[in-house]
C-alpha cells in the first residue's frame, strides 16, 4: 500500500472502518442470497423465485411474523397422539415487538421491516464488537475480528427475519458493560435480551462465575463488597429473567410446562416425544445420528476438545471474562439443546471466539480465512436455508 494511502487510512476513524467492513460484507451476502433466491422453487413460505425480503423471512421468520401479528395462543395445540404441537411460544417477543412497532409507525409490511431491523442491529453489533475486542486485542486484530463476524458462514442471518441479530446486539452490549464493570446498566439490557432469545440462565451463570473469579482475585484486583453485592444481584436478576418466559407461558396457558413442551415438540421429529432431561439431549442426538456407541463417544470427544480449546494461547488471549461467557453458554447448550441442523445458529453467541481466530497477522492467512468463510456462507445457504422438496434441515 502506497504511503499516501496508508496515511489516509490512518485518518479514518475506527467506526468508519467498521462501517466499510459492514457495508461490503452485506453486499457480498446479499449477492449470494439473491443468487439462491433466483433458483428457489415454490415452497411452504414463498412462490418460486421470491424477492429478497420474502426469501429472507422463511422458516422461523414466519413464526416471528405470526407473533407480531397474532400474538401467542392461550390454548396449546394438541397433536393427534395427544402431545403439544409446534406453536408460537417457542419464539420470544423481543424481536417481533420491535418489528411490529416499526410496522405501525411506518405502515410497511412485515418482511421488509424485519430485514431492516436485523440489518440495523447487525451494524450496531459490528460497532460494539470492535469496542469489545479492543478491550482484549490490538486494533488490527479487533478490526479483523469484525471482518470475521461480518462474513461468517451464518452471517446471512444478520439480514434475515430472525431474532439473532437483535440478540447479538444486546449480548455484545452486555459483555462490553461487564468488561467495563458497569453492573447496574446490565439490568435493562438483560431484561430485553432474555426476552429476545433464551439467554438469561446462561448469562446468570456467567455473572456468577465472574463474581467468583473477581472475589477470588480481589487481593490483586480490588472487589469492594458493595460492588460484589451489586454484581451478584444482577446475576440473580438474570436468572429470574431466564425463567420469566416459561413463567409467562404458564400464566397464559395454564400449563406449567407450556414452554418446555413446546420446545420438545421440535425435537420429536428426531427422537419422538420425551421428557426434558438436562444434559441428555446431546447424547440422544449423537445416538440418533451415529448410533451406539459411536454417538456417545463423539459427544464425549467434543466436550474434551472444547475444554482443551478454551485453554489454548489463542483463546486465552480474549481474556478471562469472555472465556467465561463462552464456557457458560456452552454449558447451557449442553444442558438443554438437542443438536440438529440448527446447531450452527445456536452457536452464534459464542462469537467472541473470533477474537482468537483473528490473531494471526499474516495477510495471506487473513485473505484465505475470509474467503473460506464466504464460501461457508454459500454452503450454509444451500444446505440449511434454501428449500429443496421435503427439506429436513431447518436453519
From TrEMBL:
<keyword id="KW-0812">Transmembrane</keyword>
<dbReference type="GO" id="GO:0016020">
    <property type="term" value="C:membrane"/>
</dbReference>
<keyword id="KW-0472">Membrane</keyword>
<dbReference type="GO" id="GO:0031501">
    <property type="term" value="C:mannosyltransferase complex"/>
</dbReference>
<feature type="transmembrane region" description="Helical">
    <location>
        <begin position="289"/>
        <end position="312"/>
    </location>
</feature>
<feature type="transmembrane region" description="Helical">
    <location>
        <begin position="110"/>
        <end position="130"/>
    </location>
</feature>
<keyword id="KW-0808">Transferase</keyword>
<dbReference type="GO" id="GO:0006506">
    <property type="term" value="P:GPI anchor biosynthetic process"/>
</dbReference>
<keyword id="KW-0328">Glycosyltransferase</keyword>
<feature type="transmembrane region" description="Helical">
    <location>
        <begin position="324"/>
        <end position="343"/>
    </location>
</feature>
<keyword id="KW-0256">Endoplasmic reticulum</keyword>
<comment type="pathway">
    <text>Glycolipid biosynthesis; glycosylphosphatidylinositol-anchor biosynthesis.</text>
</comment>
<keyword id="KW-1133">Transmembrane helix</keyword>
<feature type="transmembrane region" description="Helical">
    <location>
        <begin position="229"/>
        <end position="252"/>
    </location>
</feature>
<dbReference type="GO" id="GO:0004376">
    <property type="term" value="F:GPI mannosyltransferase activity"/>
</dbReference>
<feature type="transmembrane region" description="Helical">
    <location>
        <begin position="363"/>
        <end position="387"/>
    </location>
</feature>
<dbReference type="InterPro" id="IPR007315">
    <property type="entry name" value="PIG-V/Gpi18"/>
</dbReference>
<dbReference type="GO" id="GO:0000009">
    <property type="term" value="F:alpha-1,6-mannosyltransferase activity"/>
</dbReference>
<protein>
    <recommendedName>
        <fullName>Integral membrane protein</fullName>
    </recommendedName>
</protein>
<keyword id="KW-0337">GPI-anchor biosynthesis</keyword>
<feature type="transmembrane region" description="Helical">
    <location>
        <begin position="142"/>
        <end position="162"/>
    </location>
</feature>
Amino acid at each position: 500500500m502506497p504511503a499516501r494511502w496508508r496515511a489516509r487510512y490512518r485518518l479514518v476513524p475506527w467506526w468508519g472502518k467498521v462501517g466499510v467492513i459492514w457495508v461490503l460484507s452485506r453486499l457480498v451476502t446479499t449477492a449470494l442470497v439473491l443468487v439462491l433466491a433466483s433458483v428457489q422453487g415454490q415452497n411452504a413460505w414463498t412462490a418460486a423465485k421470491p424477492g429478497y425480503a420474502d426469501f429472507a423471512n422463511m422458516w422461523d421468520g414466519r413464526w416471528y411474523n405470526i407473533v407480531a401479528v397474532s400474538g401467542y395462543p392461550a390454548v396449546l395445540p394438541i397433536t393427534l397422539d395427544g402431545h403439544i404441537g409446534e406453536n408460537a411460544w417457542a419464539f420470544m417477543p423481543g424481536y417481533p415487538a420491535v418489528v411490529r412497532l416499526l410496522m405501525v409507525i411506518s405502515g410497511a409490511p412485515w418482511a421488509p421491516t424485519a430485514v431492516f431491523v436485523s440489518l440495523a442491529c447487525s451494524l450496531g453489533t459490528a460497532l460494539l464488537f470492535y469496542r469489545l475486542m479492543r478491550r482484549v486485542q490490538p486494533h488490527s486484530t479487533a478490526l479483523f475480528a469484525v471482518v470475521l463476524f461480518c462474513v461468517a458462514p451464518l452471517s446471512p442471518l444478520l439480514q434475515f427475519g430472525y431474532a439473532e441479530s437483535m440478540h447479538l446486539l444486546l449480548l455484545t452490549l452486555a459483555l462490553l458493560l461487564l468488561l467495563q464493570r458497569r453492573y447496574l446498566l446490565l439490568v435493562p439490557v438483560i431484561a430485553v435480551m432474555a426476552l429476545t432469545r433464551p439467554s438469561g440462565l446462561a448469562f446468570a451463570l456467567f455473572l456468577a462465575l465472574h463474581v467468583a473469579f473477581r472475589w477470588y482475585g480481589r487481593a490483586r484486583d480490588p472487589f469492594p463488597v458493595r460492588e460484589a453485592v451489586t454484581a451478584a444481584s444482577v446475576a440473580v436478576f438474570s436468572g429470574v429473567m431466564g425463567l420469566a418466559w416459561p413463567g409467562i407461558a404458564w400464566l397464559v396457558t395454564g400449563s406449567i410446562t407450556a414452554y418446555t413442551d413446546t420446545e420438545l415438540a421440535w425435537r420429536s421429529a428426531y427422537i419422538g416425544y420425551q421428557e426434558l432431561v438436562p444434559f441428555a439431549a446431546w447424547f440422544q442426538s449423537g445416538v440418533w445420528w451415529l448410533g451406539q456407541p459411536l454417538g456417545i463417544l463423539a459427544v464425549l470427544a467434543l466436550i474434551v476438545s472444547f475444554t482443551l480449546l478454551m485453554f489454548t494461547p489463542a483463546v486465552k488471549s480474549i481474556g478471562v471474562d469472555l472465556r467465561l461467557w463462552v464456557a457458560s453458554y456452552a454449558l447451557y447448550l449442553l444442558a438443554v439443546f438437542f443438536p440438529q441442523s440448527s446447531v450452527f445458529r445456536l452457536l452464534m453467541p459464542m462469537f467472541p471466539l473470533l477474537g482468537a481466530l483473528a490473531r494471526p497477522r499474516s495477510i495471506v492467512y487473513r485473505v484465505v480465512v475470509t474467503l473460506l468463510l464466504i464460501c461457508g456462507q454459500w454452503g450454509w445457504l444451500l444446505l440449511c436455508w434454501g428449500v429443496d422438496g421435503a427439506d429436513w434441515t431447518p436453519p
